Amino acid sequence: MSHVSTSSVTKEQPSPAANPNPRSVFSVVRQKVTTKHGWFGDYDYRWLCLPSLPTARSKQPPFYGIDDELPLVLAITSGLQHALAMLAGLIAPPIILASALMLDSDTSSYMISASLIGSGILSLVQMSRIKLWGRYYLGTGLLSVVGTSFATLSTASAIFNMMYANGTCPSTTAADGTVTRGPCPDAYGMLLGTSLICAFLEIGLSFLHPRILQRIFPPIVTGTCILMIGSSLVGSSGILDWGGGSNGCQARPTSGIYQLCPTVGSPHALPWGSPQFIGLGFLSFVSIILTELFGSPFLKNASIIVGLAVGCIVTGAAGYIDGSTITSAPAITFLWVYRFKINVYPPAILPMLAVYVSTTMEAIGDITASSEVSRIPVEGEDFDSRIQGGVLSDGIGGFISALFTVTPLSVFAQNNGVISVTRCANRTAGRWCCAFLIIFGCLGKISGFFLAIPNSVLGGVTTFLFASVAVSGLRVLSYIEYTRRDRFILAAALSFGVGDLLVPTIFTYLFDGVNNPNKGLQGLFESITIVLSTPFLISGIVALVLNLILPQDMPQQDEDEEVVNVAQDLEIQVLGRER
């Protein structure tokens, strides 16, 4: 990636010079902690922390590469920025999964802590670059962090719906037809166990050459999947929580504890969609926008947390926050404080295999983006080995995360924006980020606080977060040339994906006509139903198959079609003038 030219309007500070004389670890540490330069360096901290105007132009700080010498304060500050940028994406999935399974507050709080701790530990592995044998590595050697895969979140929703539908999880139906779900922690254990065995698929894919993977999963396939993941999460979680909750109160039943959101016994409980809920979510949403307009670079990288903070201050003052989750949360916690019965749910195997294919595709794109913002060449054997090491670390991380009682953790894309803004791609900052995540996870009261955030505030923030995932999919799709073949594949894939989004129950009754299927056949039917009912899975499969079987367009055919399109545009313009 080329450096910024000297003719640019925005000037750069000098880049830090590499130290030609390597020193011992002890002397480096002593220099860091005993000198002003070791603590602060020459970095412009005013630029990092002072508010800015949308039209302002300022002198940018120097760029710090992956192994450049980094001042201690800058390393800590940048690490905190990365941790804050990840925070919303790490706490939202366990909250959503726990809510879907009706788990108690203590278990939900633990799941948040486990997600933070697991992300910190496995991010350290991903940032390493451990030589294995031959040309194989473990880790990218970049500032690459991992977090809960949103693909898992979308698929888990369909899996849990199937478990409640077939009686694996308990539920009751009231006289008016309202279905109330009971707590089902065993379902989470089944998800973890299925994820654990399916992780070997991504481990195996990591030993294929990256160019083969990129040929099988081009942007038209990966972009479609990412677009559908973000879009489905907006509809199934984000916007529902914005209205008051996604635990069943969104149906506005006439009886039961979900007549009001989040439940009838909650502080300031109201019907779903009440203007108070909409306003609180909108307040958090607008706070994100204002932070982007006027905030300092530090705050811009933590805009999601700013939105949560503003929403929590207002809802706390208005009495919407239930502090019981904070008081009941332990002061210190760690992994395995709560354990789940690890089991395998056979109908979930096929969907989870597809999830790991999706995380492989996402990892390749995110590692490429990380290399670009880190000014690392994105071609050649060194880059290929970073892709291979990153995908392998992703697969092993999926296996280990299940043992950590966490759903699959994959490479996060949010941190590439932090690198781009702060101009710091140094792995030391990444290690501080991991330290902050582990500390946040071990402090149980922090998880209790996150769990106390009102649904409407969380929904206003997660709607923006999930929409950002959808926009990332659109960005990937912008790399295709939109030939007739590309448009045909995209239209066919989105027919299923968008159809699933708009009518989620379309495939629910597909096999109802089969009488008395045996256990194995019933499991197959449920597996197929889960795949067909998950927008990103079915649209990704359609795009993948059509991309492999449809012949490439001939250059002349593209030119002829372009001529026809231009002629049609001219004809429309002439007709419009005549009228």
Structural account:
It is a single chain. The model is unreliable at 1-18 (pLDDT under 50). β4 and β5 (179-181) form a beta hairpin. The chain is mainly alpha-helical and 579 residues long. 46% of the residues are buried. 63% of the residues lie in helices and 3% in strands. It is built from 23 helices and 6 strands. The strands form 3 sheets. Strands 1-2 form a two-stranded antiparallel sheet. It has a two-stranded antiparallel ribbon with strand order 3-6. It has a two-stranded antiparallel sheet with strand order 4-5. It is globular. The N and C termini lie far apart (52 Å). One of its GO terms (molecular function) is xanthine transmembrane transporter activity. The chain crosses the membrane at residues 83-103, 109-125, 137-160, 187-208, 220-240, 277-295, 302-321, 395-412, 432-451, 457-477, 489-510, 530-550. InterPro entries: NCS2 (IPR006043), Xan_ur_permease (IPR006042). It comes from Suillus fuscotomentosus. Keywords: Membrane, Transmembrane, Transmembrane helix, Transport.
